Amino acid sequence: MLTFSIAQWQGWTQGMESPEDWFHWAQHPYCPLDDARAPRLDFLPPMQRRRLSPLARAVFECAWPLAAGRPAMPFVFASRHGETTRNFGLLQALAANEPLSPTAFGLSVHNAIAAQWSIIRGETTESVALSVDDDGLEHAFVEAAMLLDQGHDDVLVVLAEERPPAPYATWIDDVPYTYAAAFRLRAGSDWSLALSSGAGGHRPPPTSSFDLTAAEHVWPNPLNLLRHLTLRTPTWGHANRARRWTWTRTA
Questions:
Q1: I need a surface site. Which of 10, 231, 232, 235 has the fewest CB within 10 A?
Q2: 210 to each of 156, 188, 247, how far by Cα in Å?
Q3: What is the rounded CA–CA span in Å between residue 75 and residue 120?
Q4: From CA 93, how far away is CA 99, in angstroms rounded?
Q5: Does residue 89 carry a pLDDT above 90?
Q6: pLDDT value at position 227?
Q7: What integer is the mean pLDDT of 53-75?
Q8: Using alpha carbons only, how large is the chain's radius of gyration in Å?
Q9: Distance of alpha carbon 197 from its chain centroid, rounded?
Q10: What's the pTM value of the predicted model, to 2 decimals?
């Protein structure tokens, strides 16, 4: 069982940026209008912004405030699908017998966003990019817990997905809209995360008038964590075909 503290968190998706927006969504989850507009990132110079994809912009939008004014900390980035739009553009170029852009190719790989974060912030601390399954949230927190165990004061964990191009709709059905969620973790015992053997399992009963378990399979797990953080759920479970996780708020 892992223990840790979530010192800060921030989420971003189109139309939901403030804590009040997330509280309203947590009570009444819905799919916001996804008009493909990416965050402006006015805190970055234009030459740095222009190289960031919409997915990378979402990551920077929610992660930057958690790192601003703080010493450099390890960065854990996790995504299941990564840069689907950029990769689809490369595939289209190949199909049309067009030359590939070296820049587009270099920024399409799974660790490109973690590298851009390190370069733009001028940080040389550890950065990790995880290609994950549907319980990537838990694996990212496990990675962060190991970094905390090595003596780091803070670890920044970011999970992000972008709404895929329409031709991918048959295969990618777990990204209702583009989103990013960032968490600054510290050593502590405010939270525990336990892994049980086997899949499936019992889910804790709802603890408020809103049925917290009703949408567990509808919303991606990082968004479910934002819901539970906002609604201060004391405990909940997440299971897939291979693993069963239990989250508990202890403080």
A1: 232
A2: 30, 29, 19
A3: 13
A4: 7
A5: yes
A6: 93
A7: 96
A8: 18
A9: 25
A10: 0.90
pLDDT > 90? residue 73: yes
Element (H, E) at 110: none
Would you state the pLDDT for residue 34? 64
13, pLDDT greater than 60: yes
**Which amino acid belongs to residue 194?**
A
Q: Which two tokens stand for residue 95?
A: 């199909």
The contacts of residue 127 (CB under 8 Å, 6+ apart) are: 74, 75, 76, 77, 111, 114, 115, 117, 118
Separation between Cα atoms, residue 55 and residue 180, nearest integer Å: 8
Q: Which two tokens stand for residue 33?
A: 């209008």
Q: Which domains does the chain have, with CATH numbers?
A: 2-249 (3.40.47.10)
- For 72, phi and psi rounded to 5 degrees? -55, 140
Tokens of residue 56, six digits: 């990378």
pLDDT digits over 150-182, tens only? 999 999 999 999 998 999 988 898 888 899 999
